[in-house]
Amino acid sequence: MRPFYPILLVGVLGPVSAKHRSRIRPVDESKLPFPKGPLVWGDVNFVHTTDIHGWVLGHHHSTWPEPNYSANTGDLYSFLTHLRSQADKAGVDLLLVDSGDHHDGAGIVSVYPNTQEHSQHYRSGGSVVDYHLSKLGYDVLAIGNHELYKYPDALQVADDVRDGIWDKVDRKNGGETSTRFLTSNVEITLDGRNRSESIGARYSKFKTRMGKDVTAFGVLYNFSFNAKNTAIQPLREMVRESWFLEAIQDRPDFFIVAGHMSINRADSEWQLLLDAIREVHEDVPVFIFGGHNHVRNCERLDGNSISFAGGRYMETVGWVSANLTKNESNEMDVSRRYLDSNRRSFKYHARVPDHKFDTHEGKAISESLFKTFDRWNLSSVLGHAPQSYFLSRYPVTDDRSLLKKLMDDVLPATVYDDKVLQHGRKRIYLANSGCQRFDIFKGEFTIDDQYSISPFSSPFVQITLPARIVRVLRQKMNDEGASQFAPSPALEQGMSEEVVRKAFDASMVKQRQDYEDRRQRELEFLRLAYGQTVFDAEVERESDLVHRYGYVTEDNCGPVGSGDDVEHVPVPYAPVPDYVSTTFPEGVDDEEPVFVIAMTFFLNDVVKAVSKIDPAYPPITYSDFEPCGDSSMTSNQVWGHYARKHWN
């Protein structure tokens, strides 16, 4: 039986009330850039989301480029309604696909009031997110690694699947409903059972509205940090399973493979899956939708396939279209677009008058989310940030760096051992940069901001080491790089996030560097052709480009930026090291003991670095670390405590 969700039963659905938007202010749509042109439609068309991480309410800060991503799930519902209407009128198909990672991120997925009132409505924050997303009418979904770090999260996903929230009418089987949440290589052992079973369906075969036969799968990369009683089958084994070989025997009009896996050729196994299909069907179109590394990307593994990934955090809504009739080269023509997730972009492509954009159901979803946001006190203001602090926009030595603020001020003020302070003992703090996920913006700092910045809960521990080791510890850890081997669940999650951060950082750094190189050539041309005055004026204009900040996508499906729906200027981006620390204290003798305070995320790397700095030093183990300060002060609590005390 499906659970009852009374929060969605709202009354008159006018504009979202001010009461529920007390801290989420609407964006001035007139300041948002227009898309560069209409979408290209084909015989079959797809809207893609991935790595939502709880950002179902959109981005609601005014610092650019945040307004570009200000649409919420209700806005997306209305947009999809109009796109589906366009598809029906044109006699073409439109399908909605998601590639996983709904958990761990914005406040609404990270905070769950443990009260009877809330527990009878939803199982968890993840259940809230999934329930509202399910209203969008997905055709195919895959699971992400963030649904599998903790068994209760995996169980919530399995229970929601069994409650039918992802079910859809199957025209292929007489109008029966079936789940579209596909976990082809992910299983769970349910309480009281001695066998594992697929969390969702292993595959789905269905007909589209226009009568096309589809075979679909949902996969996860070879993730090894999953919770006990969950299992991920390696893809190399999955493609040899009898059920998979049987599933691909019939020739569909096209395949859909959604998966939580990077689509970069170098670090994924999409080619393996495509080859398995190609052994049976040489030229059937295959549409691959990936994710995980938070990067907008597109690949063509062969002439009759396209691999697409639409970014992260509801910043991007992906668009892929194709004509199934082959061209002169016996290949299918495809088009892709990366849409900024905001109401101006949605309205432009919806092709309806502004006053007809919002649908009854879309407004109901928005209202439900805002009510939940309010009821869970996510809009509660903890303090007022005196300035913005950016995770990667500036070097970690810059006063505008979030990581510098964390190390210099926040951790020393919130995580400490009273005895260490009383005796004036020297200490340093260590943190892995991957534990921080987002920026802080000047002005109101809310509970939602607190968890959006740092959704992961890691305790703090401490150990005393000789100053000569501590002095070079951070540098040694950065030289070695973040470990991929993990002794504990907390560390497993931390290290996995480092991989994602590095992939995203590399993409963003390249975007900015390419832009600055092009810009430098343009400025030099202006100086030579028109003189210093024009040159100086153009340099001065650079500060006016902030409102154009956004993604400039470089993929393998066309020239740089050609897939972007809006032309942007890349956000300034500075690479950050794996590890950061407070400044080492001055005037300390080599053998003087220094307290090292760290998160349990990365103790493995601390242990390894110490042994490499001084192999003769007595080996340290995890049992040598002891709790530091208040045990309730975990990594996702420090910003909130600091804001209450210092930003009021």
Q: For the largest beta sheet, what order do the strands appear in spatially?
A: 8-9-11-12-14-13
CATH topology of the largest domain: Purple Acid Phosphatase, chain A, domain 2
| Relevant CATH superfamily of the largest domain | Metallo-dependent phosphatases
**Average pLDDT level:** 88
Proportion in β-strands = 15-25%
| Count of discrete alpha- or pi-helical segments spanning 4 or more residues | 18
User: What is the class of the largest domain in the CATH system?
Assistant: Alpha Beta
Structural Rg:
25 Å
The helix fraction, in percent, is: 25-40%
What general form does the structure show?
A: globular
CATH architecture heading of the largest domain: 4-Layer Sandwich
Main pleated sheet: 6 strands, mixed
Could you give the count of β-strands?
Answer: 25
Structural class: alpha/beta
Notes on the structure:
The chain has 18 helices and 25 strands. The two termini are 48 Å apart. The strands form seven sheets. Strands 8-9-11-12-14-13 form a six-stranded mixed beta sheet, with no helix packed on it. Strands 3-2-1-15-16 form a five-stranded mixed beta sheet. Mean pLDDT is 88; it is low at 1-22, 115-120 and 484-495. The longest helix is centred in the C-terminal third of the chain and has 42 residues, at 489-530. It folds into two domains: 41-375, 4-Layer Sandwich (Purple Acid Phosphatase, chain A, domain 2), CATH 3.60.21; 381-648, 5'-nucleotidase,  domain 2, CATH 3.90.780. Helix 1 packs antiparallel against helix 10 (360-375), helix 4 (125-134) runs parallel beside helix 5 and helix 14 packs across helix 17 (603-613). Strand 8 (203-207) and strand 9 form a beta hairpin. By secondary structure, the chain is of the alpha/beta class.
